[in-house]
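Structure (tokenized):
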């Protein structure tokens, strides 16, 4: 079918719906509703779609569009749920199960006839994690079901007036409900409020006389203090006391009207500035009875070492990269023939940290430092020849994050993940040894198409192209356990020693043809010219992206590309 996606932003769900529909043979175009109703009308006129689908829409479709064309809306709530803060309410009310409903567009928001509805469990994670995983899995299932039903032509959607549908109208979950009462709220309540707003909109609070939004929350089992008191920092996060414990808050965001020149999310400690708080150290290897937060951990099970990491939004600052490299080197000091990098649910990595860069006094210099730190990490993985390295992607990856994964010997990817193996939308040439890693897996022609067309690919398509070696078809909450089993089997494989020897020989042959240092030098020369050119589009694109300006870095797709083919491995 010819399908037009209308989205307020080409976000994770919009990208996944695009990729999955394309995988099923549909011809898919995209228009951004952020560009205005006339842009939507023009796209409908220009593409003449058989079906319009809105996977993520913050504004209403133009009435003339939904009256004249079949339009389906993806709502992140169960049948009968209405309102703009659906997932927020699910977390606030501790609903054990929620759902996604695909509705016919009509005048009343979320009130259309139901084409498909799929439930999902509300895992005890942040809203954004839940949205990208359990909710996204349900949404894709529901969209594919609705599209199939529409194409068959015999299905009659269920009106919400049906007695089986209990309509519940919910308004915005406002800051008055989200606000933390540090004196009286339990740690569990504080965590629920923080997790229900972890990405957007955050929880409005006051710290050091400033109004700030708190983003993300994790429990702390040892540090204690007066309720509301800041106790320590760790890896950019701050620890704050509750009435019966403490929580870690990784990111803060100044209010837009506060006069702060960088009113966007970034590591909490950098937003607060000098505080005199102690730096709480945590070893990479934590005992199983600890309940505390750190963004990088190492553990060992038998013959397998695991370096797990989880950075907010998948962004990796200079500090993140350097600390992860130190953890990787720590893992290399252990005599394990298999090393797994990743294996957490949600984002693997999206490359350099644009928010930290934008907030720095010299964005060009910080871009350069961040990129070199990322290159150091990727190079360390590429030069590891004494064991097999596995990149385990429990969630999405983009740009340098994809290249970090491709530096490993094997890439294992949860089937719900989406990969963006390109840099173009940020006006960048790219680095992280992509000129080596990408063509050796996909072939030169496909590598060129992936980087220039700048389109997302599903895990299944990535597998077909050679970007992914093994698909892991499990729910997000089961990914880590499944990777543990797969890694143990790999370590027990009778040909493991032969594979390690062959890997070392292959690396030597590749080095003789073109040294890694030459790839790095050529890529960095191109990136240096971009970073230090004030007129380069990168700077405006970066600024628009971190400030969430309408349509930032997301262009409408005017024509579905020809199917990608490739794979040399």
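Design, position by position:
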């Amino acid at each position: 079918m010819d399908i037009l996606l209308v989205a307020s932003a080409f976000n994770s769900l919009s990208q996944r719906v695009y990729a999955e529909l394309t995988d099923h043979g549909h011809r898919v175009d995209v228009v951004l509703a952020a560009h205005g109703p006339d842009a939507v009308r023009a796209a409908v006129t220009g593409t003449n779609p058989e079906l319009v689908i809105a996977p993520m829409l913050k504004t209403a479709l133009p009435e003339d569009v939904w009256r004249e064309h079949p339009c389906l809306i993806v709502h992140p709530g169960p049948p009968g749920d209405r309102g703009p803060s659906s997932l927020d309410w699910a977390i606030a009310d501790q609903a054990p199960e929620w759902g996604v409903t695909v509705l016919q567009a009509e005048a009343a928001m979320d009130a259309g006839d139901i084409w498909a509805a799929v439930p999902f469990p509300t895992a005890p994670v942040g809203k954004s994690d839940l949205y990208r995983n359990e909710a996204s899995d349900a949404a894709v299932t529901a969209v594919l079901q609705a599209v199939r039903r529409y194409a068959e032509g015999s299905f009659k959607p269920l009106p919400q007036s049906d007695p089986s549908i209990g309509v519940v109208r919910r308004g915005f979950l406002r800051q008055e409900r989200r606000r933390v009462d540090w004196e009286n709220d339990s740690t569990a309540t504080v965590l629920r409020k923080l997790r229900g707003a972890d990405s957007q909109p955050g929880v409005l609070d006051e710290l050091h006389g400033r109004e700030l939004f708190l983003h993300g929350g994790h429990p702390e089992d040892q540090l204690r203090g007066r309720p509301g008191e800041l106790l320590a920092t760790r890896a950019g996060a701050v620890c704050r006391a509750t009435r019966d414990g403490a929580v870690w808050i990784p990111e803060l965001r100044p209010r837009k009207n506060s006069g702060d020149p960088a009113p966007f999310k970034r590591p909490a400690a950098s937003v607060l500035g000098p505080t005199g708080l102690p730096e709480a150290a945590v070893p990479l290897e934590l005992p199983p009875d600890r309940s505390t937060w750190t963004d990088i951990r190492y553990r060992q099970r038998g013959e397998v070492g695991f370096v797990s990491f989880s950075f907010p939004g998948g962004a990796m600052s200079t500090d993140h990269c350097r600390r992860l490299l130190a953890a990787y080197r720590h893992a290399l000091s252990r005599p394990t023939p298999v090393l797994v990098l990743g294996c957490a649910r949600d984002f693997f990595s999206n490359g350099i940290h644009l928010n930290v860069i934008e907030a720095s006094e010299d964005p060009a210099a910080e871009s350069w430092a961040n990129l070199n730190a990322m290159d150091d990490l990727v190079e360390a993985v590429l030069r590891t020849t004494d064991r097999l390295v596995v990149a385990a992607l429990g969630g999405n990856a983009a740009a340098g994050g994809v290249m970090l994964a491709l530096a490993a010997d094997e890439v294992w990817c949860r089937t719900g993940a989406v990969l963006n193996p390109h840099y173009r939308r940020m006006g960048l040439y790219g680095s992280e040894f992509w000129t080596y890693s990408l063509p050796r897996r996909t072939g030169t022609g496909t590598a060129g198409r992936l980087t220039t067309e700048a389109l997302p690919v599903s895990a299944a398509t990535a597998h077909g192209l050679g970007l992914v070696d093994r698909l892991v078809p499990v729910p997000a909450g089961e990914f880590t356990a499944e990777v543990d089993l797969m890694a143990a089997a790999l370590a027990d494989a009778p040909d493991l020693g032969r594979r390690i020897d062959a890997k070392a020989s292959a690396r030597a042959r590749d080095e003789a043809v073109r040294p890694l240092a030459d790839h790095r030098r050529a890529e960095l020369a191109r990136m240096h010219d971009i970073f230090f050119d004030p007129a380069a589009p990168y700077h405006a694109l970066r600024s628009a992206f971190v400030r969430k300006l309408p349509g930032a870095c997301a262009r409408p797709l005017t024509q579905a590309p020809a199917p990608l083919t490739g794979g040399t491995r």
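Reviewer-requested clarification: The two ends are 32 Å apart (CA to CA). Residues 182-272 form a domain with the Methionyl-tRNA Fmet Formyltransferase; Chain A, domain 2 fold (CATH 3.10.25.10).
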